[in-house]
Design brief:
By secondary structure, this protein is α/β, with parallel strands linked by helices. 33% of the residues lie in helices and 29% in strands. The protein contains eleven helices and 13 strands. The strands form three sheets. The chain has a six-stranded mixed β-sheet with strand order 5-6-7-3-8-9, with helices on both faces. A four-stranded antiparallel β-sheet has the order 11-12-10-13, sandwiched between helices. A three-stranded antiparallel β-sheet has the order 2-1-4, with helices on one face.
Length: 303
């Protein structure tokens, strides 16, 4: 059974009248790759800052490796947090950042970092303030991977990378994770790009957890049914609807749940079209509107 390294219970964080994290309870296990997904302003960054001791909660409890992260240096030494806008001293070069990294990360691998520098073609002698956005993103990715921290957070630092560089990041992450397992949390908007990397999905919206499931359970867990509106509605019945579009006499309805073989045969007999829902499409459905049942009753807690 996977050991729990992060446990959060009833976590709350407020900024004035805004509740950024609203009674969140969550556990993260060791040696897994998590996707922390949600819209802009959903609370992803705030949650990660709480878990890495950068913020104090206004309510609830946090345990990381059995302790409160903000109060124990030995816990912080086992963490790595790489932000989208990761900041370094302007007078530093990339070489300075890599030279300082072993002071902060007890599992730092300088040889792996050197290989990553070559992969991303990072200019080591150029000052940080002279690096392009893509080069700054590469700098963060290199530090996050080569840190080999037991718990590593990537808060979208790879958005500045082009498609080729992002693929290098995904490949190196998986390769090194296979040899050196640790817990990795990826926060990203590029959901379909990372979908196959993720082992567990955590979806947050308006400071609350909407979805907390293994990725294998989530993949293919929704189905879109299209055809004549009256036939679609009759077929859907009282299933949970997470998306609905209508054009004239035609309708396309996305339901939360898989169809068995008997239901698929029945749909074909009725002339209905069935389509799988990608992870990104599912997230859009779940965060675009509250979940509703067939009668239109709100069911936001159904996820």
């Amino acid at each position: 059974m996977t050991a729990t390294i992060v446990h959060v219970d009833g976590l709350v964080k407020r900024y004035g009248s805004l509740t950024a994290i609203d009674a969140v309870s969550l556990s993260l296990g060791e040696n897994r790759i998590y996707g922390l997904l949600g819209r802009n302003g959903a609370g992803k960054t705030t949650l990660m800052q709480l878990l890495t001791g950068q913020l104090f909660p206004d309510g609830g409890a946090i345990e990381v490796f059995g302790r409160a992260p903000a109060e124990h240096a030995d816990v912080l030494g086992r963490l790595c947090f790489i932000a989208e806008s990761q900041r370094y001293p302007d007078t530093f070069t990339a070489a300075h950042v890599l030279a300082a990294a072993p002071w902060y990360f007890q599992n730092w691998d300088a040889d792996f970092a050197a290989h990553l520098v070559a992969d991303f073609r990072l200019p080591l002698k150029r000052r940080i303030k002279k690096l392009s956005r893509g080069q700054l993103s590469a700098m963060g990715v290199i530090v996050g991977l080569a840190s080999r921290a037991e718990l590593t957070f990537f808060d979208e630092p790879y958005l500045g990378l082009d498609a080729v560089a992002r693929q290098i990041f995904y490949d190196r992450l998986l390769e090194d994770y296979a040899e050196h397992p640790r817990t990795v949390v990826l926060s990203t908007h590029l959901i379909d790009e990372v979908a196959n990397l993720l082992e567990h999905i955590v979806l947050i919206d308006q400071g609350r957890i909407l979805l907390d499931r293994d990725a294998d359970e989530v993949r293919g867990s929704a189905t879109t049914i299209a055809g004549a509106a009256s036939v679609v509605d009759a077929f859907v019945g009282d299933r949970t609807v997470i998306g609905r579009e209508r054009l004239g006499g035609l309708a396309s309805v996305t339901i939360d749940g898989r169809l068995d073989q008997r239901e698929r045969v029945r749909a074909a007999e009725l002339g209905l079209e069935l389509a799988p829902v990608s992870l990104q499409q599912l997230i859009i459905h779940l965060t675009g509107t509250a979940l509703t049942d067939h009668a239109g009753t709100e069911r936001r807690d159904a996820a």
